[in-house]
Amino acid sequence: MNHRFAPLALVGVLAATSAQAMETYTLDSNHSMPVFEVNHLGFSTQRGRFNKATGKISLDRAAQKASVNVTIDANSIDMGLAKWDAAMQEEGFFNNVEFPTITFKGDNFTFDGDKPVAVTGDLTLLGQTHPVRLTIANFTCKAHPMFKRNVCGADLSATIKRSAWGMTKYLPMVGDEVRILIPVEAIKDEQS
Questions:
Q1: Residue 5 included in any domain
Q2: Which of 6, 15, 114, 127 is deepest in the core (most CB within 10 A)?
Q3: What is the residue-wise DSSP string for the chain?
Q4: Is residue 65 in a domain?
């Protein structure tokens, strides 16, 4: 082998190895339903969730690189009562007619060893996009006993101010701070 080209060959091998290490996962919508909590009139913490979320995750644990792209169906809001669901879909809250989806896209991950512990990305809600940092806890990847494929899961959380996205109805009686809790399970794509 010509020694002048050895460094180029090494770069090629490293690039190929890195490309092979990137794995892609598809969100398991049955086990990835975002939950939110907000103070209600100073009396209690009220919770709601979205029953439909789809997305893709790319992960290279060795290289400490990852990306996430998630879409939430705003019409899938579930407050536990049909009347309350309808009220939350109106203008002033999620305004589902005009803004039927909520998205989060991020590739700025923080790792502790080979485990992601946080991701900063763009949350688009009500047509406005702002950065949000999600803390990642309980991250694990292993073979799923039923799917017989690798699954990665974690619990994500963040606190945002809904007013930053223009959701100001009933402020300050209904809290501005909204805690977001997202259980995530994602199934490794067969080709990755």
A1: no
A2: 114
A3: --GGGHHHHHHHHHHHHHHHH-EEEEE-GGG---EEEEEETTTEEEEEEES-EEEEEEEETTTTEEEEEEEEEGGGEE-SSHHHHHHHTSTTTT-TTT--EEEEEEEEEEEETTEEEEEEEEEEETTEEEEEEEEEEEEEEEE-TTT-SEEEEEEEEEEEEGGGGT--TTTTTEEEEEEEEEEEEEEEPTT-
A4: yes
Is the overall model pTM greater than 0.70, yes or no? yes
Q: What is the CATH number of the domain that holds 47?
A: 2.40.128.110
Q: How many distinct structural domains can be found in the chain?
A: 1
pLDDT at 18 over 80: no
Domain that holds residue 52: 23-188
